[in-house]
Amino acid sequence: MMGLPDSLRKLVARKFTQARSSQDLVFSDTYLTLLQHPSTPAVQLRYCPALGKKPTSNSANPTNNKAKKAFDPFENPSPELLIAPVPATNPTHNIVLNKYPVIFNHFILATKENKPQTNLLEEDDLYLTHSCLQAWKQDAESHHSLFAFFNSGEHSGASQPHRHLQFLPIEDMKGGGEDWRVLCETMTSPAHHSLPLLHNPSLSFVHFATPVGSSSSAAEIHGKYILLMQAALASISEGGSLDSLDAISISQDGRTTFSYNLAMTTEVMAILPRRTEASSIPDVEDSAIAINGTILAGTMMVKAEEDWDSLRKQPEHVQKILADITYAKTSNAGRG
Q1: β-strand partners of 109
Q2: How do residues 298-324 score in pLDDT, each as one tens digit?
Q3: Tens-place pLDDT, residues 39-94
Q4: CB 259 within 8 A of CB 278
């Protein structure tokens, strides 16, 4: 599919081990627990004390970086982190390691050309993502799967303006917790009478998923993405309807008109429109919990011990956090 010299899983694992040993990447340990409450899905909570030390760009919105050009880690990736350009012939993307992972074998698919994170994803972005997911699962020595996610827009949790999608091995995310299930793969109930849209009725916020076939073409995969984008925007727009998606304008001059997280596994593609990037825990001073696309896997992370302690004692606060960052289904005029 991509013309790699070895299996993707082996290439990533080998490079990760080498880069960690040589300190070309900085791995941060996390504490992990599973939050369970009747009002919310089971959510992984990670606590990473070192997270606040990670360097970040000024903004994922390039219009805010007029005074000084921010460092672009994907413009010329270091050989120590570069896994492979893909596809092998006329490559358009690079597969690189995340320099600051908290989960083993976290890697990234970034465009070679600096394309905006806020623009619509293109066919090759999604087809190569699908190819990575399939390659990982089809490895003869592995029955494991990947979770891919994409953050777009100022409220999505994006940290880099250069277009990139991220990948986390699901087995490395589990950390021995067998009761946890990837959230987007629980979206299995029909969300519309005729469109191939799915959702999880127990979730109180707007979200959609759609099945992804193992043999889907680039055009088919991109079409599924456009459907999710239209459905999401219709559901958060005044007067929007899933029965008239052709009237929905999801981009202006190539740039998407709303913030969202996208997730993809070998089974489904899912979308979560975003209202804000962060939330806080009641009665915890200076609480600030930023959420990105990993929420579609059913996982979130905190960097303050007070937040960690509070959420473990009162897991019902997860419902408040999710309500803050998303759009409530009750305000949705679009379900069919």
Answers
A1: 95, 165
A2: 999 999 999 999 999 999 999 999 999
A3: 777 899 999 999 765 555 444 555 554 556 788 999 999 999 999 999 999 999 99
A4: no
Helix (H) / strand (E) element for 209: namely strand 208-211
| Domains of the chain: residue spans and CATH | 8-54+73-331 (3.30.428.70)
CA atoms within 13 A on the CB side of 254: 6
Rounded CA separation 120/114 (Å): 14
At position 246, the amino acid (one-letter code) is D
Residues 6+ apart with CB under 8 A from 122: 115, 222
Tell me how many degrees the CA angle 74-78-82 measures, rounded to the nearest 5.
80
Residues 6+ apart with CB under 8 A from 329: 203, 204, 205, 206, 335
| Cβ–Cβ < 8 Å for 289, 48 | no
pTM of the model: 0.92
Q: How far apart are CA 2 and CA 72, in angstroms?
A: 25
b/e map 8-20, b = 16+ CB within 10 Å: bbebbbebbeebe
**Residue 99 corresponds to which tokens in the numbers above?**
């320099």
Interatomic CA distance for residues 325 and 277, integer angstroms = 6
HSE of 51 in the Cβ direction (CA atoms, 13 Å)?
17
The C-alpha atoms of residue 225 and residue 102 are separated, in whole angstroms, by 28
DSSP 8-state code for residue 32: E
Amino acid identity, position 330: T
Q: Which residue has the tokens 């519309």?
A: 192
Question: String of b and e for 100-129 (b: at least 16 CB within 10 Å)?
Answer: bbbbbbbbbbbbeeebbbbebbbebbbbbb
- Rounded Cα–Cα distance for residues 35 and 40 (Å): 9
Q: Residue 199 in contact with residue 189, Cβ under 8 Å?
A: yes
Helix 123-138 vs helix 218-236: angle between axes, to the nearest 10 degrees? 110
